[in-house]
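Inverse folding, one chain.
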């Protein structure tokens, strides 16, 4: 079967779904095709921590995230997707780190983000579960989390009612404006959007577009906090110090024999957690990216059977009461996905340089939080609406600027 569409979106994750919503519902494009071999909002979108923050180290990212959060706040008036403002709390036990964090507050606040500095007394009075070793913290105020699956499903329903169609097939090639699908059919469209998440580089290559993307494996663990260590209203809480885990000598020898020297030395910053579910839920989501593994996306994900214990040990440095779980780890489950990103960790949004091919890619680990703002920006490019000042910062053509490319390695990524 051969179909036509005004706009064909390849990828039905949170980015593609948001794009379909903004094009069909907001801008009235009533012939949008959303193409994916999997059910919408699966693959990586349903593995997200579902958090958001406007705390980023450069102006374009702050502006884009602020716009995305504006849209979430507007949508929260229309539908319930558990949008909260619990914030992010960056904690440190090192005076020099606290001084640097305080300087960062002044710098990032000038970009349009908001945060509150908590001294030693403030942090212990407000967050009694934090280790007494903590000397200070920064509370990011425009931050929190929401049920991205609920929001995504609502967007799909609205988009379909406005004319978006779902096509369950895989893109296998493209010839001009004709997309070839795994079921033998084709979709002909003057506008193709590459929104294929971790597969965006491969999909774009079929259309003759080379994307400067690479992928990192990131895991997360959900565990049952049956002792109620973590308050249900706690913010996303992040340990901003490196640390060495307190393995016994026997454990160290066993780890060395397993080839896990990566767990025996200094471990990286940003071990973090947040409560999951409502007030009655016992679950906590926790993350710690200590692998640093760059690889081509494959499924099922590579496993790390030690991940739950390693993360719990890391968290217990910040929240000592979690150490009571180390003798017997609580019920837990591990999943994750890929952060598919550019070297400076800015997404690719807008025209690709190939006629009719548009990009909504490189959303790294911030796909959920940026989805609304990025989809709006993409839609404005396609329908030729006025663009915000930050639009140029996310074009693929930025890499044509030698000065920009020369400064890439010094750009702070903002990644947790």
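Residues assigned per position:
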């Amino acid at each position: 079967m051969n179909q036509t569409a005004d706009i064909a979106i390849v990828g039905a994750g949170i980015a593609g779904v948001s794009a379909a919503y903004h094009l069909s519902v907001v801008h009235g494009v009533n012939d949008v095709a959303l193409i994916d071999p999997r059910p919408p909002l699966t693959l990586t979108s349903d593995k997200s921590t579902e958090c958001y923050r406007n705390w980023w180290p450069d102006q374009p990212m702050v502006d884009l995230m602020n716009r995305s959060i504006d849209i979430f706040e507007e949508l929260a008036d229309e539908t319930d997707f558990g949008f909260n403002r619990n914030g992010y709390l960056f904690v440190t036990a090192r005076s020099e780190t606290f001084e640097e964090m305080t300087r960062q507050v002044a710098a990032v606040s000038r970009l349009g983000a908001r945060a509150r500095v908590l001294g030693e007394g403030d942090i212990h009075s407000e967050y009694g579960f934090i280790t007494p070793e903590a000397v200070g913290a920064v509370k990011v105020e425009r931050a929190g989390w929401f049920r991205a699956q609920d929001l995504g499903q609502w967007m799909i329903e609205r988009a379909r009612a406005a004319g978006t169609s779902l096509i369950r097939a895989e893109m296998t090639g493209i010839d001009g404006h004709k997309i070839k699908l795994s079921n033998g059919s084709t979709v002909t469209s003057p506008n193709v959007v590459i929104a294929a998440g971790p597969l965006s580089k491969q999909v774009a290559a079929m259309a003759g577009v080379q994307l400067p993307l690479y992928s990192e494996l990131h895991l997360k663990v959900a565990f049952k906090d049956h002792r109620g260590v973590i308050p249900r209203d706690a913010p996303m809480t992040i340990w901003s110090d490196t640390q060495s885990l307190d393995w016994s000598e026997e454990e160290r020898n066993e780890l060395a024999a397993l080839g896990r020297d990566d767990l025996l030395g200094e471990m990286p910053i940003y071990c973090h957690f947040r409560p999951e579910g409502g007030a009655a839920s016992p679950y906590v989501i926790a993350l710690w990216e200590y692998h640093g593994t760059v690889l081509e996306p494959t499924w099922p994900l590579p496993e790390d059977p030690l991940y739950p214990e390693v993360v719990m040990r890391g968290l217990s440095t910040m929240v000592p009461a979690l150490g009571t779980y180390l003798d017997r780890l609580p019920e837990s489950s591990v999943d994750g996905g890929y952060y598919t990103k550019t070297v400076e960790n800015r997404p690719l949004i807008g025209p690709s340089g190939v006629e009719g091919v548009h990009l909504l890619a490189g959303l790294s680990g911030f796909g959920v939080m940026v989805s609304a703002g990025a989809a709006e920006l993409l839609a404005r490019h396609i329908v030729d609406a006025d663009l915000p000042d930050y639009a140029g910062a996310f074009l693929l053509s930025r890499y044509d600027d030698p000065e920009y490319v020369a400064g890439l390695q010094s750009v702070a990524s903002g990644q947790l």
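The domain at 88-144+214-341 is CATH 3.30.9.10 (D-Amino Acid Oxidase; Chain A, domain 2). The mean pLDDT is 97.
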